[in-house]
Hints:
The complex is a heterodimer of chains A (314) and B (255). Chain A is built from 8 helices and 17 strands. Chain A is of the alpha+beta class. Chain A has one domain (30-312). In chain A, the strands form 3 sheets. In chain A, strands 4, 5, 6, 8, 9, 10, 11, 12, 13, 15 and 17 form an 11-stranded mixed sheet that branches. Chain A starts with a helix and ends with a strand. With 255 residues, chain B is mainly beta. Chain B has one domain (19-254). Chain B contains 4 helices and 15 strands. Chain B starts with a helix and ends with a strand. The A-B interface holds A 4, 8, 185, 187, 222-226, 254-256, 264, 271-274, 276-283, 286, 294, 297-298, 300, 305, 307-311 and B 4, 47-48, 72-79, 81, 96, 179-182, 185-187, 212, 215-216, 218, 221, 236-239, 241-242, 245-249.
Amino acid sequence: xxxxxxxxxxxxxxxFVWGASACTGEDFAGKGTVALxxxxxxxxxxxFPHSESGTMRSFVDGWKLxxxxxxxxVGDVALVRPEKKDVAAxxxxxxxxxxxAEAVQGGGTQGTLEFAEIKDVPALRLxxxxxxxxxxxxxxxxxxxxxxxxxxxxKGWSFLFEGTANKEGAGELKFRLGLPLHLRYSECSNGKxxxxxxxxxxxKKTGALIYVHPIHLFWDSLGEGKSKLRFDAFAxxxxxDKLVVSDELATQDLTxxxxxxGERLKETDGALVYYDDNGLLPPDQLNLLAFFQFAxxxxxxxxxxxxxxxxxxx
Amino acid sequence: MRWYGWLCLVVGLWGxxxxxxxxxxxxxxxxxxxxxxxxxxxxxxxxxxxxxxxxKAHFLFGPVVFYEGKPRVAWWRGLPRWGVAYAxxxxxxxxxxxxxxxxxxxxxxxxxxxxxxxxxxxxxxxxTLESVELQLLPPAGGVIGALAExxxxxxxxIGQAEKxxxxxxxxxxxxxxxxxxQRSVQGIEAEVPLSAAKVTTGRLEVRIFVDRLLGxxxxxxxxxxxxxERYALNEKDGGIVQGIRSRxxxxxVWR
Lengths: 314, 255
């Protein structure tokens, strides 16, 4: 009987120690700093064609494209405890930044801009969320010109893609595509290690990178499968000013895509070209602008190619 | 029994507590060919301005998965194909959505019949149906319905289209090409509370909008001719593929 009592006390002791350690994890874990950064990678820096992870990314219709500006507004970064769903740390922002500014692309960071730090973050694995939101008056600006910032604020844009494209026989044209999207990204997977969220290290700086992946902008599919990079459909809606703006994309009907000559857009073998909307676009929005808005929404990743849940708020 | 004996018993029973995944329900399900504007099926004008009249139209669909929760767009791309759950509803979540019920079989639906095809009594759990996934596969073993009408494909229809005096007779016959999520219509929107009290009367009805399946087709661009000198409408035409893959070509209601 005495042995049995000793055994029971032993079991109780083990349970107490185990339970106590489980209840005090966060307090003992310490705190760290999370460094927030933005990047557009090779696609933004080099345009198209460019080489990404050993694969050449080029337009199937012969266009070459360079970005001159990529303005984006980021804010509402939230690091959330997965179980309790409460915000452990946050950075409000918002910040309007031109990712193609010389200070970003010409520096020693290979196009990556560290734009904020969040200190005293519990050293835990946390879910990551952030927003891309319309520019508003008084917004903090980094490397954006006054003219660009004013236009983005006036039009409520959250993105502005600007650049040049050229193709033999078609000449050169410019594009300036602003979008008034308000997008919320949450529960991001981590592209570095394919886990969910970010493991914040104690007494160290942990990186959290919002990655704009411009290859999505020109893929002809919103679904999985064999997407091709195309620009003919964009070029075809440029007016006499040789400038493509976002409103003009709405005139390109996805069910009857037109090419540069105003005729139906065709592959080199004569087959008609179709964009695959993956069943996402409403019947009254089967146009290139609606498609482009989805593509831009898909282009935002976390820590490399990590994927987030995304929600369009506006 | 000593106190620690009781303690062990309580702890043991606590550990063995049954965990239910929700209140089980059974409900009647059906599918029907319909028009997106509620008009009678068979004749309509599509977005390309063609007045379409159908003589025959059959659609092969299934499995179908009913979810609580809505899919997130960016979450889909690049993830491994989830496929159909093939598990007891209530025990499975896909993309953070709870599977409420499933139809695992493939059915042939006469889109012009005007009356609902009975999909039988389905088992599931209580919840709010918020999204539906419809699989569009070629015929496999065990298809329920008039398989011969399908001609070995997912969508088959005979009819004519008329625009500005030009009449084009056509024969649609296609299966969605394989690749990625091509053969799955995800995120069909729904808002149907499924409670034990509610499902005792009525049925869950999947609606396939015939006008939207053919809504983007420009019949003037068809060039190949097949049987009976009818223009062939097949998977090479992006308009019909877009229509079949569009989540807006389908609806789910309780009636």
